[in-house]
Amino acid sequence: MSYANLHKADIKAKVEQLLSKMTLAQKVGQMTQAERLTCSPAQLKQYHLGSILSGGGSCPGDNTVQDWVNTNDEYWAASMEQDQDHLAIPLLYGVDAIHGNNNVRGATVFPHNIGLGASHDVDLLKRIAQVTAKEVLATGVEWTFAPTLAVAQNNCWGRTYESYSQYPEIISQYAKAFVNGLQANLDDNSVIACAKHWVGDGGTTNGIDQGETTLPELDLRNTHITPYYQALDAGVLTIMASFNSWNSEKCHGHYYLLTEVLKGEMGFDGFIVSDWDGIDYLAKDYFDTVALGVNAGIDMFMVPENWQLFIEHLIKHVELGNVDISRIDDAVRRILTVKYAYGLFDKPRPAQRKHANSESFGSAEHRAVAQEAVRKSLVLLKNDNDVLPLSKHANVLVAGKNANNTGHQCGGFTIDWQGVDSNEKIEGGSSIWQGIKALAPHAELSTDPLAIEADASKHDVAIVVIGETPYAEGMGDIRQNDDVIIEAGSQIKGQLKVLEAYGKSLELSQLHPEDLALIESIHAKKIPIVVVLISGRTLVINPELAIADAFVAAWLPGSEGQGVADVLFGDYNFHGKLSFSWPKTNKQAMSSRHQTCDADYLFPHGFGLKY
Ligand code: BGC
Questions:
Q1: Which residue range is the domain that position 436 belongs to?
Q2: How far apart, in whole angstroms, are the C-alpha atoms of residue 160 and residue 207?
Q3: Which of 40, 94, 283, 524 has CA atoms 20 to 30 A from the CA of 437?
């Protein structure tokens, strides 16, 4: 842990002193994290809970910054009551601020990690993390479940966009910068980071979310474990266990990976949090799963709804001797150490903290960083006859379902778990169309699916903004056939959690035939076409690319669509280079990367044109 300026010995003494006063119920409560919808502040106190989370889209009140601060204030006050039954231990409130404080209305929403991966700008990553920390602190929250260090190896995986790159070396650099940006000096400007998901989440067979990663140990280490070394080096205080299995054993119950490798060999001295109900799949009987998770080395349990049962079971296990009290003490020690290291015990109530309700939330200054990130993440794949950059005086036709839809351009994990549709729910920022209009006054928006108003005598060029629509986690998976569908989701010993997949193919023309139809319709009118692709992964785009004069991969750029226009109209040059190789065929796209060599790809990693 990087709390060099704090005295480790002092913290240790404080932790031991507090621990010695705690009852078993208080210790088990400290290891428990409930979802805010299922647990009132009074219950938090009654059961001595150590943490509350907001799941994706779980937002208090009208989802204003003030609503969040008020909510956290109430939980904090309950956690700090000291009486004969309760010890004052401040809670940790956790959220998925994975591309900005993305749950909250009016937040600055950054590009998803796949776009940041293409920017290859470590300093930018750090600044993004700093802005994210401030916007999280504005809401009175102190813990974000980020960064994701997944090394995505198969585009079928619905979480590919949470991965910076298919290469662990690239992710390693970002891991360090991002954790440093979030946690800084563990002072008033810091939030607690959580590297996730430990480990092998990006390596599952067929890219199935929460699936099975089958790899020799050396490959698991070289590919999926590698980025964690840099996160640890930066002092990451928490790590989340992963839903996937490694060689048929669930990571949530994996003593070797959690305790021996991470805590032992790698020396991680923060705490491990489980993923959402992540222990549920360790055994058929919930009672058994609790002991399996604790004994494997998980310290805090994200048991959003089941928390009362979890507490009951864990106390019983200790009484029965299935879980040794030394394991409980170790977990609580780790949790309390993180709370002390972060200075949580010395902080005032959330409403009185330095950045609470800060006006910098969603400010122009913060959005400028996001706009820079958008500009730097764009990758130019084709630019025939130098159709780009466009003249600001040109008569530009703008079309496509993602042209004027900030919800779509933000992707999943924005306001709602699965993301949102339309401009209304994303407050502030600009759609790509709005960004274009601001630079090119003659630009015209077509909302017709085939852009019937396209006319070569009126339009010099068309910008067509197409691609995927929002999804998160397994809902973004691509699954080809039924035998893959029954493998989907978390499963062990016959338990299945089947999620509806996004589609069956990674060909854009199969997933979204309306996009090709639109491009063909404009092409038939002999208007040059600039395609801007919104997507959470590299898709097979051969027919679209063939007709386009220029083609830009914009990933999931977030709230600042203006950044796309800045580059299309030449105020800035292209900067981004692929951090994932670009597939040529669906077969290739649907297979894991280590099965294909880079040279076979349509565009190799590192590709990206410039003006
Ligand atoms: C995801 C995690 C996330 C958690 C809390 C889970 O479904 O896998 O990445 O942090 O939910 O929202």
A1: 364-600
A2: 9
A3: 524
> In which element (H, E) is residue 381 found?
strand 379-383
Q: Cβ contacts of residue 106 below 8 Å, gap of 6+?
A: 64, 65, 361, 362, 427, 428
CA of 591 to the centre of ligand 1 (A): 25
Q: Ligand 1 site: residues with CB under 6 angstroms?
A: 55-56, 96, 145, 196, 275-276, 473
Query: Residue 342: CB partners within 8 Å, gap ≥ 6?
Result: 142, 186, 190, 192, 237
Which residue of the set 135, 142, 299, 473 is catalytic?
A: 473
Tell me, yes or no, whether 173 and 310 share the same domain. yes
Question: What predicted TM-score, i.e. pTM, was given to this entire model?
Answer: 0.97
Specify the number of domains making up the chain.
Answer: 2
pLDDT tens per residue, range 185-244: 999 999 999 999 999 999 999 898 989 999 999 999 999 999 999 999 999 999 999 999
Are residue 190 and residue 239 in the same domain, yes or no? yes
Asked whether the predicted pLDDT for residue 599 surpasses 90, the reply is no
Beta-strand relationship, 379-383 and 495-496: unpaired
Burial of 5 (0-12, 13-18, 19+ CB in 10 A): exposed
- 473 as an active site residue: the answer is yes
Any idea what the CATH number is for the domain that residue 233 is in? Answer: 3.20.20.300
- Pair of tokens at residue 200: 């092998």
